[in-house]
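Write out this protein's structure.
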Amino acid sequence: MQIERLSKTFSQAAGPVLDDVSLTIRPGDIHGIIGRSGAGKSTLVRCINLLERPSAGRVIVSGRDITALRGRALRQARRGIGMIFQHFNVLSAYTVAGNVALPFKVAGLPRAEIARRVPPLLELVGLADKADAYPSELSGGQKQRVGIARALALDPSVLLCDEATSALDPETTDQILALLRDINRKLGLTIVLITHEMEVLRDIAGRVAVLDHGRVVKEGTTFDVLAFPKSAVARSFLAGLVAHELPPQVEHQLLPEPVADSDPVLRIVFTGHAAHDPIVAELVSRFQIRPNILHGRIDYVGDRPLGVLTLVASGVGGRLPAVLSHLCSLELSVEVIGHAVRSVAARRHGAAV
């Protein structure tokens, strides 16, 4: 699926909600789109399936420009794009089987064909024993499973998920994400996940785009977006998952330039095997620095370790270029993010606070 220079403006006074958005979503991928409330996520997903017609740009699904379609041709094309929602959108007057059967009825399938096709969908989403139950008898996770089964009814090539886990507790969220991962694997279905929760995407999405004020500010593999966020928006999203951002109380004490009696503050990103290597101990023995660790964390993205460590390189003096060169030689990402002034007590020992 290709999204090419997509823009959407509801009001000239308010400006664009989507501003020149371009993305390539490869067949069979799980692609995440993350952004704050008001970033344009829901408008983007509604433009993808033409529930909202974009002001400019194209959406190409399975090689077909659906933004050029109207009427019956557009309705036919939409059958190839399933969608699930935050609040489930199940109909209370219908049973589970009845809700899943609705797309077939709208498509005009015979009753016997509908009766044949509903049970396998319920089996796929783990609701084979709930066919005759009504939504009032279901949990939130079960209602979302009904929504997933219904979205898959017409064999779409793309499944759009608009904040599909936001109304669920963490355990149920994990179960729904596991179900989506299983469906992606079994059916080869392309899944686009729209969310404001990076933890939803961390273990399931192969690629992520960060949306801010209607523009894509970062796009790449989930691991790279987590490991190397370039914008303040991207870093703020990752604060709860990866220790890129210092606590405000610490960050406010850093100076942008070195002064007398200050030491550089390094942010080191550990990836792969280096996440488990004794890098700090090596810096102490090789360069005689006295590290003061300010902030750090090791996590996993899929099955790959990712660590971020922020430390004051006390006593490094003129050896800083050699330290940075050494860390880069280990294929670590390192940057000087500021400078810390030593306290009076620390100066006696050559350390910074």
